[in-house]
Design a protein that fits this description.
By secondary structure, this protein is of the alpha/beta class. It contains 10 helices and 10 strands. The strands form 2 sheets. Strands 6-5-4-3-2-1-10-7 form an 8-stranded parallel beta sheet. Helix 1 (15-24) links the parallel strand 1 and strand 2. Helix 8 (191-197) runs parallel beside helix 9 (233-242). The model has no long low-confidence stretch (mean pLDDT 97).
Length: 284
């Protein structure tokens, strides 16, 4: 299945309109965003009726909300030294799992940060793991997967670094969500080997391009036009296909306030899909 990130689609439309547009663009699902803004965090408090409206739209269009990008923990991190922020982080997680359960979301993508705006330390790492264990227990209770995204941040910027956290949390409901762009941008990563070694932990894959990190440049991890970055898309797709990865992919873009989001999305499809077909994936 191939999905589209919500932030690629026009922002100020209803969920029914968003799902209908995704269907017209031949996507199987949409990945909902719960980011650090008040507007999107408020979705965690949707009423039963608001949830019913979204579920009806899913049922009527046949387009699922298959995954959730929960990046709100950048603002309220699980590893924060501020206990009040950690409490909010756990409350957010519980609400996100409940929302996922109600909407039929299979997987929640967690941002791989112990903290984002605070200084990192051994303590923030330990607090992150301690609270992540609590989150995984919540997810197990509802049968929802939690998948850590490979990030634009040194804390978890490879599947190998994810595995160090995975070693502390032995649960089938805690897995990895590699972003091909983020994975490729860090020069230390042997991308093919990373995918090979940790294929059994991969639940979903983000497709985007990035500019690589160098000694003189911090890299660019968002809004890099496809083809302008460092990602070897054919190599990544061929590796995943050889490894029999048949899970879902999500095209990650930020065209929601663009003058022509549909055109940008179609341009992205025209760039990505030939590589996927050459690798052996059947795409529309």
């Amino acid at each position: 299945m191939i999905g589209i990130y919500e932030k690629a689609l026009p922002k100020n439309i209803s969920w029914r309109e968003r799902l209908e547009l995704a269907k017209k663009l031949n996507f199987d699902f949409v990945e909902i965003s719960i980011d650090e803004t008040d507007d999107r965090l408020s979705r965690l408090d949707w009423s039963k009726e608001e949830r019913r409206v979204v579920r009806d739209a899913i049922f009527d269009t046949g387009v699922k909300i298959h995954s959730m990008a929960l990046s709100g923990h950048r603002r309220f991190p699980l590893g924060s030294l501020d206990s009040s922020k950690r409490e909010i982080a756990l409350e957010m997680m519980e609400k996100a799992i409940d929302l996922a359960y109600d909407l039929g979301v299979r997987s929640i993508q967690l941002a791989g940060y112990d903290v984002y705006y605070e200084k990192k330390s051994v303590t923030t790492r330990d607090l992150f793991i301690e609270n992540l264990q609590k989150c995984v227990k919540m997810a197990e209770d509802k049968g929802v997967l939690l998948s850590i995204e490979i990030m634009d941040d040194p804390f978890i910027n490879s599947l190998s670094s994810f595995s160090k956290i995975k070693d502390q949390i032995s649960s089938p409901y805690f897995q990895a969500y590699p972003d091909l762009g983020n994975l490729s941008a860090w020069p230390k990563n042997d991308v093919g080997y990373e995918l090979e070694k940790y294929i059994s932990n991969i639940t979903q894959v983000h497709i985007k391009d990035t500019l690589a990190v160098t000694d003189e440049y911090p890299g660019k991890f968002k809004e890099v036009p496809f083809g302008d970055g460092c990602v070897d898309f054919l190599g990544c797709f061929k590796t995943l296909k050889r490894l029999n990865y048949n899970g879902s992919f999500v095209i990650e873009m930020w065209s929601e306030i663009s003058d022509a989001p549909k055109k940008e999305i179609k341009d992205a499809q025209e760039f990505i899909y030939p590589f996927m077909r050459e690798a052996g994936y059947d795409v529309k």
